Amino acid sequence: xxxxRIYKEHYSxxxxxxxxxxxxxxCSAYDELILSKRGILNYFQAVWKDGYIDDWDYVNNQWKRIxxxxxxxxxxxxxxxxxxxxxxEIESNIIVCKLSSGHVVRCFGITKDPKTNDFIMVMKLxxxxxxxxxxxxxxxxxxxxxxxxLIDIAHVLRDIHNKGLIHRDxxxxxxxxxxxxxxYIADLGLYQPANVKSSQNSNKKIYGILPYVAxxxxxxxxxxxxxxxxxxxxxxxxxxxxxxxxxxxxxxCWDAAPLKRPKADELLKLLENLYDDIIDNVEGFVIIKQxxxxxxxxxxxxxxxxxxxxxxxLIYYMTHPQAIYTSRLLDFKNLPEPKNADNDDLExxxxxxxxxxxxxxxxxxERN
Length: 368
Known about the structure:
With 368 residues, this protein is of the alpha+beta class. The protein has helices at 84-99, 130-137, 143-162, 198-201, 215-218, 225-231, 244-253, 264-280, 286-299, 343-346, and strands spanning 4-15, 21-38, 41-48, 53-57, 62-65, 69-76, 107-112, 119-124, 128-129, 175-177, 183-185, 206-208, 328-330. Strand 4 and strand 5 (62-65) form a beta hairpin.
């Protein structure tokens, strides 16, 4: 891809503790390489010559910058008339980033393209998505490691919700990974165009990626066949066997009734309890039995890990040719009342079935 240098006006959002976000106007240079184009955003990789503010230099009475560093530039389409709501989302992103111990992708500030007048967000550069990482490593990862990723994600969701915020576009491509066991949540609040006022849009237009939008959110809009199936209980399926306790928790998160889905803090406790049981590795624990059972089943299937170190352990996804995996306007009407999947679709591992909803998330005394 052709390299180009663009000089833009950079508006640095510097957050002081207990203070307001300041908008500081300056000129910055970027060497840019396009990364990808997705949804309402264009993604570029760039080299920020001076780098972001790191600390205050008390000797010279000025900000100290980190120096030359790679960043991601996220171009916002049709953002010439950017709304206050959208700027508030950026500010919320900065605040939640601090609360989540850095697991929300950091926004350093916003800049502006002089040719289009579209705004551009300057973000921390993360090289890949969690989906990419799992595609390459899922089969070889232990359930302890997989649950560790889920716990990190649940931690961030809890922090976001505790701040009174909602992600609104939470899906696998917005969960990023640096391929070093750390996951990051991206695009918090960036689910709709920057020139749309949330206050004027709450009951009118829905933006997102169809398979990841809750069915009750879609109701009242004109529908396609795929949306009808989601509301009628269609849920993703896989031939890869999953421990029943984890499988039941997944289905609980997919429940058609919003109030029956676990809250982020409840989900976190449930995942941590399962993780603790795996760490303890007590033979009588149900999750230990189920992991052994599913591992045996998967070893006998096409999902077994090849013995050769040069063999691939990739998981291949079949993408429907008409599928659109970018955030867009979803306009559906007359959808049916959401329902859960049929019981036949949920049957799995009868010998180790258990009512997961009755587990005490605050106690480990009866889990063996």
